[in-house]
Amino acid sequence: MPEAAIEPASPAAQAPRPPDVGLRLTREQREHVRREVIRRTVEDHKEMVKRSKDLSLEVILNDAVYQEQDRLRREKPGKETRNQVRFWNKVAHDFHQVSEAERERILERIAGMYVDEIMGYFNPVIHKVAAKILPWGLKALLSRFSPAAWLKYLGTRLNLEENIVISGPIDHIRELAGRATLIMTPTHVSNLDSVVIGLGLYLKRLPPFTYGAGLNLFSNPVISFFMNNLGAYKVDRRKKNGVYKNALKHYATLSMEMRQHNLFFPGGTRSRSGEVEQKIKLGLLGCGVNVYVSNLQQGRPDPDLFVIPCTLSCSLVLEAPSLIEDHLKETGKSRYIRVRGDFSRPMRVLKFWRDLQRMESRVHMQFGEPLDLFGNRVDRNGISRDAHGRPVDRTKYVETGGRPGHNPQRDQEYTRELGRSILAAFQRDNVAMSTHVSAFAVFDLMRRRHPQYDIYRILRTSGPDHSIPIQDVHAELAYLLERLREMAARGEIHLAPDIKTATPSDAFAKAMHIFATFHGQEVLREGPHGIYTGNMKLLYYYRNRLDHYGLDLSGPGKKE
After folding, report:
1. Phi, psi of 495 (to 5 degrees)
2. 461-492 burial string, b = 16+ CB within 10 Å, else e?
3. pTM (2 decimals)?
């Protein structure tokens, strides 16, 4: 690692650029992006062939055909599916019978098809309009309401701004946005995260970010119109072949080179278990180092890229029932059957926001300290600081023979170190809420009562026959709240206002109210013999938000 520099050479110390430079592309720039992504994707695969004795373009195309035909067999029938089937059937018929040069042209056509699907737009006028009308327009965007539903909700404005609490070094991030390209890396809780983040950025006068959104979110034509014009590009996680993954990687890389602020969820998908992410995907983070080196080599202005961790925390999660079912199905295999996700039901989404307002509950969007690509903290002047606060010259990290150069093995280790810093920020910036701590207390009391049970047997332990005295719950909560407040004082976690100073009984009453208001099946219920669980799986989901803090099975009632 580079030594601390007394006088850091920091290109980020130059005069700030306008925060939205490069986000809106002209038609010529878009065509350049298309051609360049195709070129890089094809060159990547040709380079793979050169390096391997067993690989050829024929093998690469065969894998793409197999993966796509297999995917399309599971797709719903329709015009788009039929067109794709015809395309891939033609590729399957042609690529075995042609020359290597013709296979290269087939590869170009495949890459071009993928780029056309992936590519997003950005319209600043639509961005401003969407942000202003979102509290009203969410109803229209969700569409398919019955006339009766419209009459019921027409007079109710969704005050989304009042339900989103945005914290962290906002001014610091805003200044860095004018000096460098930012990569925001949020945790992923719900399909509503993109809406929350987009509105949060607008409310805090931060620049818009381009981001990858699941292709399924573009199925509604109205939502698709807005997302296409708000900087979103499409990501289809059903496509597993290397050509698609390469095209997606090069598209994201090129957007960074063009100084577009990027947002991606490094966890890859929503947290099914309810935990704060413990593992992240490093692919796009690794692209950042490559872009930084290329920027330095080519003498581009504002060559730096900084990473902004962002932790989203919610007292309620719209899709919690289906998410925990998915998690348990994966870990428990045949014991669990998947249920339908709530995001597909528009009325359920609207009810979620209305219930948040009625319960005075909040979604917390906590920005972490900006990081450079090597995991160092970055100050407001764009200078990297090591763990002791000493300035560090970032350019020294990527020098090879005294000049900026690519070194895949070295750069992968830098990216792993950055990943560790992001995960630490996620854990540190998590916001504990009454639903989390109450679920944690009751769930662990139940586990302590049945130490012989594994997790799957515990999840079937619910109902009045398994009541816990309310005084035991309050005692456990008192212990947990004291521990969490000590941790918050050390900067190891954040606390929502409803538990910063709340008594155990008040915190538990708030959680009971929140659970009962939204979830159809009661999560917790008070009976004549104490507290019992109505849905142990949901309790487990919310409890998991406080996992990995060393709190489990450590309360006052712990059996020695």
Report:
1. -120, 135
2. bbeeebbbeeebbbbbbbbbbebbeebbeeee
3. 0.83
